[in-house]
Each structure stands twice: as C-alpha cells, then as structure tokens.
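Exercise 7. Predict the structure of Lrp/AsnC family transcriptional regulator, regulator for asnA, asnC and gidA from Thermoflavifilum thermophilum.
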Amino acid sequence: MASSLNIDKLDLKIINEMMHDAGISYADLGKKLFVSGGTIHVRMKKLQELGVVKGTRLQVDLKKIGYDVTAFVGIYLEKSSLYDSVVKELKRIPEIVRVNYTTGNYSIFAEVVCRDIQQLRRVLHDELQKVKGIERTETFISLEESFSRSVSIDTEEPAVPLKNGKE
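Solution. The predicted structure, encoded as tokens:
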C-alpha cells in the first residue's frame, strides 16, 4: 500500500478530510483523527514535499462576484503533436481555468469562466481562435452547475498504490 511514497492510512485520512474542508485547523483535524495537531502539520508538510498535496484553494461562488458565464470548449487540434505548444498558449488566457487532454472527439477540453457573453465572445474569437495549432472549437455554455465535489478517498485500501514515478 502506497509504500513507495511512505503514505499510510493516516495520510489518506488527512487528505480525505482536508479535501472536504481545507480550512479546518490542524488542531481540530488532529482531534478528529485522534492524533496531535503537530502530527497533522508534519504529515501535511511531507505530503506537500512529495507533491501529493499541491496547496490549498479558496472555493468561491463566482456568480456572486459577477462571473456569470461558464463554458466548456472542445478543441480540435491540427495535429496531436501540437498539444504542448497549444496548452502553453492557453495558459496565457486568464479566463481559461482548466484544460484536459482528452480522448474522443476533441484533443483538448477547456473550461472558461467569464463575466458575461461579450467577454466569452472576445475570448473565443480574439484569443482562442488565434492560437496556432487549433483547427476549430465547439463551445458549450453551462446553464447551471448542479454540484461539484472532491472524490472521496478510500482510506482503507486505495484502488491503485501511489507511486512516486519510479517503477
């Protein structure tokens, strides 16, 4: 079990709890898991150094601060070998918040968040369509996000042992 990274059940429990409430104090999490806050601190530092934990994020209701449009863009590439250069250019567009390399019809699936339709139009027409290597795009506007959640980690026996990239 996760031995190549020295990750044990306590680490998995910490990850699981923090994914659901990253704002919990180490002291409170320690009480919940029957260990000291110091232990949680040391374990979190280890998980960050291993690259398992990649920081924390504040979850914001974007609509409440004026970002009313979320769209998903399927991107067709001229050649799949252009993926890396296209992604490098997509990173420069701040409205693109997530990019996935996919199978199926699209090479890339991107999530775009904008204040309004005019901003989305500008992103699609003035920025995205000008990226070299993109053949064409297909845009889907989200009408509502029904839910968003983190995966629940199996703290007893993970489906696949974690590895540090060394086989």
